[in-house]
Design goal:
Helices cover 77% and strands 0% of the residues. It has 431 residues and is mainly alpha-helical. The chain is globular and about 55 Å long. The chain starts with 16 loop residues before the first helix and ends in a 16-residue tail after the last helix.
């Protein structure tokens, strides 16, 4: 790591890491998860929902193509703040699109705009994180970072969904409920943008930059990609990025429809507000515990030591939804317990994935290389997710969850081939 990258902010990371990653998760949750619940609530089929919302992953897939601009134009701090204000405006446009007769096309367009700005925000925020912290602190805080990211995600599919469900339960139409919900989210983004304007530190490594000539920009852009694909073990790394989340990529698109669908359709028949409560309370608790323990474990023993336990935890907890699909009228308590177990396993297991992306991105172009890694991560979610609705409607929920468990073998298998330095992430690492 260069001396520039070791320059640390004087601001305590607790002031900005939790809020930055909470805010980073909210638009992603709105685009990828809340949109699924909203379209289900508004009457679209599982096949249409999975296909349409699957395309919304595209900005995260292609974000490496503009990540060099974030690296070489202005500062990461500037990009973070600009995108937060932009997302506030984009979500407001989404609210205005809901009453229109062609609301499906218009809201998908608004979601795509928010997704583009969210993907750009991800590039800047992740680069800001790596520039502002030492290697050990990056590992130490990765559990906090991942936890608050998932808290933000679950707040989206928990608190926001609860709000929409409560409005609908009290006599509001589904359309009105979602308009109010996204209006609240837009206002929240305005407040958090103001907060981060004040509290985000100014690391010396995050200097304000101006792009040079078009030719220089093009050469630097191409050099970023060439250097990435020349990294050692690149083929194995890409396979890991694409396959580690194969079960989750399909599961995440059908969890909410499964909880909302009637028992006659193979679902659990929960209301929109009940789904919000399950994920906004019990789910958050499981995720927080799993994410924090995952980060602490990796900081003590290193990624290499904890990789396989995290892989198995990530995979085995998928069985909870298979159990729920076979259970005879499971109680709300049983549903909560299963969601807690699944979220705990996800929080613990996902730590390994995020740490490997940081590890593989190390070098002078770490921000752009990390963005390329997350582009592959988004592609790993996009393609299986687009087909998940069709697969479920062909197989039914029970057989679909069996299929997801079969896909866990890909996660376990690909993790056997990656190589990680034994000392990466340890407190006393000499790197």
């Amino acid at each position: 790591m260069t001396d520039t990258n070791k320059q640390l902010s004087r601001r305590n990371p607790w002031w900005w890491i939790p809020t930055l990653y909470f805010v980073e998760a909210l638009p992603y949750a709105a685009v990828m998860t809340v949109s699924v619940i909203m379209y289900k609530n508004l009457g679209l089929s599982n096949t249409d929902i999975a296909l349409y919302t699957g395309w919304l992953y595209l900005p995260w897939v292609i974000k490496p193509f503009w990540s060099p601009a974030v690296d070489i134009v202005r500062s990461k701090r500037w990009w973070v703040l600009a995108m937060q204000w932009g997302m506030a405006a984009g979500i407001a446009l989404l609210t205005l699109a809901l009453p229109a007769p062609a609301f499906v096309r218009l809201t998908l367009g608004a979601f795509w705009l928010v997704a583009f700005m969210s993907a750009t925000h991800d590039i800047a925020a992740d680069g800001f994180y790596m520039l502002g912290l030492s290697e050990h602190d990056q590992v130490m805080y990765v559990g906090i970072r991942s936890t608050f990211y998932r808290i933000g995600s679950l707040a989206g599919q928990g608190v926001l969904v609860m709000l929409a469900g409560t409005i609908e339960d009290h006599g509001g139409s589904a359309q009105t409920a979602w308009m109010i919900t996204f209006g609240v989210l837009s206002a929240f983004f305005c407040l958090t943008a103001l907060y981060h304007t004040v509290v985000l530190p100014r690391p010396k490594a995050d200097a304000d930059r101006r792009a040079g000539s078009f030719g220089a920009l093009t050469r630097e852009f191409m050099g970023t990609f060439v250097s990435f694909f020349k990294k050692p073990q690149i083929g194995t790394a890409i396979a890991f990025m694409l396959l580690y989340r194969l079960p989750e990529a399909q599961l995440v698109k059908l969890i909410s429809p499964f909880l909302l669908d009637s028992p006659e359709a193979g679902g659990l028949g929960l209301s929109v507000s009940q789904v919000g409560v399950v994920y906004g309370t019990i789910g958050v608790s499981g995720l927080v515990i799993g994410g924090i323990l995952g980060g602490l474990a990796a900081a003590r023993g290193g990624l290499k030591k904890w990789l396989q336990p995290m892989v198995w935890m990530m995979s085995l907890t998928c069985v909870t939804f298979l159990y729920l699909s076979y259970a005879d009228a499971p109680s709300l308590l049983t549903v909560n317990v299963c969601v807690f177990i699944e979220q705990f396993g996800y929080g613990f297991g996902f730590t390994a994935y995020m740490l490997y992306l940081i590890y593989f991105s190390e070098g002078p172009l770490q921000t752009s290389h990390y963005a390329i890694c997350t582009g592959f991560m988004a592609l790993s979610m996009m393609l299986p997710g687009m087909a998940a609705g069709w697969i479920q409607e062909q197989l039914g929920y029970q057989n679909f969850f069996i299929w997801v468990m079969v896909c866990c073998t890909a996660t376990v298998a690909v993790s056997r081939f990656i190589k990680v330095d034994a000392d990466f992430g340890k407190k006393n690492s000499s790197k």
